[in-house]
Specification:
- The complex is a heterotrimer of chains A (298), B (287) and C (293).
- With 298 residues, chain A is mostly helical.
- In chain A, 77% of the residues lie in helices and 1% in strands.
- Chain A contains 13 helices and two strands; from the N terminus they run αααββαααααααααα.
- A two-stranded antiparallel sheet of chain A has the order 1-2.
- The longest helix of chain A is centred in the C-terminal third of the chain and has 39 residues.
- The two termini of chain A are 40 Å apart.
- Chain B is built from eleven helices and two strands, in the order ααββααααααααα.
- Chain B has a two-stranded antiparallel sheet with strand order 1-2.
- In chain B, α1 crosses α11 and α8 runs antiparallel to α11.
- In chain C, strands 1, 2, 3, 4, 6, 7, 8, 9 and 11 form a nine-stranded mixed β-sheet that branches. In chain C, strands 5-10 form a two-stranded parallel ribbon.
- In chain C, α3 links the parallel β1 and β2.
- Chain C is globular.
- The relative contact order of chain C is 0.18.
- About 5% of the residues of chain C have low confidence.
- The chains are: A mainly alpha (298), B mainly alpha (287), C alpha/beta (293).
- At the A-B interface, α1, α4, α5, α6 and α7 of A face α1, α3, α4, α5 and α6 of B.
Chain lengths: 298, 287, 293
């Protein structure tokens, strides 16, 4: 009886250990695949062509710069929306709202995070882009701005969720100390609580940005998909084409193994590396925040 | 002088609080507005036939049953692959792993998986499952792709749940002679289960609503019958909404909103169930 | 724990019961003798293909036809990869694609299944009603940027186009932008909006007075304004319709294709023969395309 119990325990432990390593396996697998299919790009397309400003793959124009700037400008716009609203809402929920409202608002904001991106894109075409066009007197409402607004909306729940947790984890003693010294609640929030929760809040912001960079369907439906080099501030009000929308729109049509196929995988590689960068930065903050929380709360 | 300063501070607070409150209001109102708008526009389309019938007349009439069933199949498929693997990985991280560089690498890997854009998952799924392993455009390929995407969510929330079980539970169990696995299975897992289930539901909710990963791995525009095997392609709610709102001419607006509503209800129900389980578990918690 | 398990199992059971519900039992009853035809490709053809599939399946319950879009390029790529029976294409297969197919052991055979006019559309409020091909080419390549330059109001021109994987896009590039010349290397202006589908174009043109777009005649609803086109300034300005396509007075019309791997046989051949029949071609006319006969 003992022997068979030990044997079963042994197998289960091994399986669990293997599952633990699986995450690394998958990340490596994804990276390997992207590289395997993306690297031939360098062989088939010369560097000068890649840094061209025109993206027109069916005539062999593979300039990816417009796509990168497109993703960049939409993400920056989304950040400008998500950061103030996200942090503001997190502060509201954590510091200002009465207890009962907190219980209502948190799930409500999480709800927004659960909205499928295609639903938001759908509303974007039908409702938001006409408004943008009319309000701002633009030639068309299918712009980077529209994309940013919607992406900001998608990123806000992530920011609120993580930031609010971070603010909540700041020990009451910090706040009480500040109040005892005569600070107003407002002063306490900005000079004590928020700085104390800094790394958690920043993590939330970075995760929100990560979500915005990676969003596909919404941007494909509302940004117009014109591969224009988006370098000026004014580009926010014109159509742009993001890397994600490019992959989604063009992947279905490529013949397996063609140059276009490799270039699309190359773009996927770029996206992967960008999100890797953002996440490594965010994860080191998560690590530090968790350590601090463990120290404080233990 | 001091009084003036004091008034100043309180004024600042008043303004500040109002500003922050407005921000929160402007964040929450759009959410509510979106849901209500879709409800109002899509409500009239909902009927028994809409939910249980097949599309007719180039999808402009009839129902969306194949899309609903397709999404259910995909969600189930995702659960089958990601839930056991995810929970096992979470158990490893919570109960077995020491704080070594290897463990830190695993954590970074998980955070990375969480951050990868959904379309890159689609690309990966196309390359590996559809083409390399020759599964073709199928429920199998799409589910596998969605599972890897869902894995980080399940692992993080499950691990957090497991960790929140007080160490005391474990030590008492071991001191009574149980093995590590017995402790985990009968005590820790049981206590952490509500939290784990919450995480699973939230993860599956995301999988159900995603379009990009299934675009080239499993989704189809129109199928005349429900899928018979995991190697069939399938219609799915998010893809169906995308298609009918962008590709079919003269599509009645009511049907578009109706489909959006069904998808929304599906996703929101999962959200509510998860939230309910979480609050109930918190209330019943014995520590 | 038991309660959660029970709930989960109940949901799973319900799920399997829906798939055995009345809707699918009719489908699966004749499973044993069913043939499955997979049809993929052009978004221009997709609704026509769907209408045909619905009609044909209604009369032939032992044949099941699935239809998917994605663009002409997608369909041909799938034919080359061997994953579909019929590739729908709104443009001719390219020579590189033929080579690729041959190297994969696939022999693409072309069938012309319908004709289609490309309508150029503008917002109903736009006073401009006619343009020459050269003017349209200049508009889309970016040489003309304001509606004033072609007799309209002082408004910037917003150009809408299908995505590059669309056969319609390629046809427009070759026939209108480049006026049919193979040496011409004119490209779409970089700020042309590339919308992933026809409906995107229709929706934007409908509500944006600055917009100009193009798409197959079958996709243009009655409330949108079509431009009458002349090949030269001295010529007649013609609106697209079945007669003007058939007598070739409308300058931008094209054939629509279905490609199969080799000559079709058996039930696939029957389906393709039926598509060329009067019954099927009537559906073509109903949907706004131009019948082949």
């Amino acid at each position: 009886m003992e022997k068979s119990l030990n044997w079963r325990e042994f197998i289960i432990t091994r399986l669990i250990k293997a599952s633990g390593y699986s995450a690394i396996l998958f990340v490596a697998l994804i990276f390997i695949f992207l590289v395997r299919e993306g690297v031939p790009t360098f062989v088939e397309v010369d560097f000068k062509s890649l840094t061209n400003i025109r993206w027109y793959p069916i005539e062999d124009y593979f300039g990816i710069l417009p796509l990168i700037t497109g993703s960049l400008i939409v993400t920056i716009g989304a950040t400008l929306v998500a950061v103030p609203f996200g942090i503001g809402t997190a502060v509201y929920i954590s510091e200002i709202a009465p207890r009962w409202m907190r219980e209502v608002l948190k799930p409500l904001v999480e709800l927004l995070g659960g909205l499928p991106s295609v639903v938001l894109g759908f509303l974007g075409i039908l409702v938001i882009s006409p408004y943008v066009r009319v309000f701002l007197d633009l030639p068309t409402g299918l712009t980077a701005l529209t994309g940013s607004l919607l992406l900001g909306g998608i990123a806000v729940p992530t920011v609120v969720s993580v930031a609010e947790d971070a603010l909540d984890a700041v020990p009451r003693a910090y706040r009480e100390g500040a109040w005892a010294l005569g600070a107003t609640r407002w002063q306490t929030i900005w000079r004590v609580t928020l700085p104390a929760a800094k790394s958690g809040v920043l993590t939330g912001v970075m995760l929100g940005i990560g979500r915005a960079i990676g969003e596909t369907m919404t941007v494909m439906m509302v940004t117009g998909n014109a591969p224009v080099l988006a370098l000026k501030l004014g580009s926010l009000f014109s159509p742009v084409r993001t890397m994600t929308a490019t992959i989604a729109a063009e992947m279905g049509e490529v013949a397996n193994g063609s140059t276009h196929y490799h270039v699309l995988f190359f773009i996927g590689m770029v996206l992967f590396l960008i999100s890797l960068g953002v996440n490594v930065a965010a994860s080191s903050m998560v690590f530090r925040a968790k350590k601090r929380a463990e120290r404080i709360l233990s | 002088m001091k009084r003036a300063l004091a008034l100043n501070r309180h004024l600042v607070q008043r303004i500040g609080f109002t500003g922050i409150t407005l921000m929160a209001v402007f964040t929450v109102i759009p959410i509510v507005a979106v849901v209500i708008y879709i409800l109002v526009q899509g409500g009239p389309a909902i009927s028994g036939e809409f939910i249980t019938g097949f599309p007719h007349d180039g999808m402009r009439a009839g129902g969306i049953l194949p899309a609903i069933v397709g999404t259910l199949y995909l969600t189930l498929g995702t659960a089958v692959f990601s839930v056991p693997l995810g929970i096992a990985a979470a158990i490893y991280l919570s109960e077995y792993a020491a704080d070594t560089p290897l463990t830190r690498t695993i954590r970074i890997a998980i955070i990375n998986l969480a951050g990868i854009p959904s379309v890159v998952y689609g690309l990966f799924g196309l390359g590996l499952f559809v083409l390399f392993l020759k599964f073709g455009t199928s429920i199998l390929a799409a589910s596998l792709t969605l599972s890897i995407m869902t894995l980080p969510v399940i692992i993080s929330t499950a691990e957090e749940s497991l960790r929140s079980v007080p160490q005391g539970f474990r030590t008492v169990s071991i001191s009574l002679g149980a093995t590590r696995w017995q402790t985990i299975r009968r005590i820790v897992l049981k206590e952490a289960l509500p939290g784990i289930i919450t995480g699973v539901i939230l993860g599956l909710e995301r999988a159900a609503g995603e379009t990009a990963p299934i675009l080239f791995t499993g989704a189809a525009f129109f199928l005349p019958r429900l899928p018979h095997s995991p190697f069939d392609a399938t219609m799915a709610l998010p893809y169906h909404l995308f298609v009918i709102s962008t590709q079919v001419p003269e599509m009645p607006i009511k049907i578009q909103y109706g489909t959006a509503l069904v998808l929304l209800v599906f996703v929101l129900t999962m959200n509510l169930v998860a939230t309910a389980i979480r609050s109930r578990a918190r209330a019943k918690r014995q520590w | 724990m038991n309660r959660h398990l029970l709930l989960f199992t109940t949901l799973v059971a319900m799920l399997f019961m829906t798939s055995c519900g009345p809707a699918s039992s009719a489908e699966s009853a004749s499973d044993s003798q069913e043939t499955y035809i997979e049809n993929k490709g052009s978004d221009t053809i997709v609704n026509l293909a769907l209408a045909w599939a619905e009609k044909y399946q209604g009369d032939h319950p032992n044949v099941r036809i699935s239809v998917t879009g994605g663009g002409s390029g997608t369909g041909i790529a799938s034919l080359i990869n061997g994953t579909v029976d019929i590739a729908n294409a709104s443009r001719k297969i390219k020579s590189e694609e033929v080579d690729e197919a041959k190297s994969n052991g696939v022999d693409p055979v072309e069938h012309i299944i319908s004709r289609d006019a490309i309508a150029v559309i503008v917002n109903p409020e736009n006073p401009v009603s006619q343009l020459t091909l050269q003017q349209i080419s200049d508009i889309y390549s970016g040489r003309i940027v304001n509606w004033q330059e072609v007799g309209g109001e002082d408004r910037p021109i917003v150009r809408l186009s299908r995505e590059t994987n669309s056969g319609t896009h390629v046809y427009f590039l070759e026939t209108v932008l480049r006026l049919g010349s193979k040496e011409d290397k004119t490209l779409f202006s970089m700020d042309t909006l590339l919308l992933p589908s026809s409906e995107g174009i229709i929706a934007e043109v409908r509500q944006n007075p600055n917009a100009i777009g193009y798409d197959g005649l079958g996709y243009v609803p009655k409330d949108l304004k079509m431009i009458a086109i002349a090949e030269e300034e001295s010529g007649a300005y013609v609106l697209p319709s079945i007669p003007t396509v058939n007598d070739k007075t409308y300058p931008i019309a094209r054939d629509l294709y279905m490609y199969t791997d080799g000559q079709p046989e058996g039930l696939l051949k029957e389906y393709l023969d039926w598509i060329m029949s009067d019954e099927a071609q009537e559906i073509v006319a109903e949907l706004g395309f131009v019948p082949v006969n």
